[in-house]
Amino acid sequence: MTVRCPLTDCHTKNAADADTCVRCGTPLRHLARLSAYPDHLFNRGLAAATAGDLGTARDLFAAVVHWCPLDVVARNALALASFQLDDHAAARVNWEAVLDRSPGDPLATEGLARLADH
Ligand SMILES: [Zn+2]
């Protein structure tokens, strides 16, 4: 994994654990932590869901989707947590967003079918 320097006239690839850009010296440590943050939130969301804390899981998955709106895995997880919390409107919006991004996605297709049964 590498971190790209954020300066537009640099964009040098650096090691993920680099403190500063090897070319221009821009601080990178904060940036690396930022890009790992959605994964961290997603894992916490999965842990909360496994522990049965669906409200927390839903909030964490929603945060991941906020950071990474095109992440269909996180959006499927958000939709499922919403469904399990009986928030069918949110479940539908997110499963439909998954299908927009990834037509035929089996989790979203099944989820919307389950919503139609309710
Ligand atoms: Zn740089």
Automatic annotation (TrEMBL):
Q: Which SUPFAM superfamilies match?
A: TPR-like
Q: Which domain of life is it from?
A: Bacteria
Task: Please state what the protein is called.
Answer: Tetratricopeptide repeat protein
Q: Which organism is it from?
A: Kutzneria kofuensis
Q: What InterPro entries does the record tag this protein with?
A: TPR-like_helical_dom_sf (IPR011990)
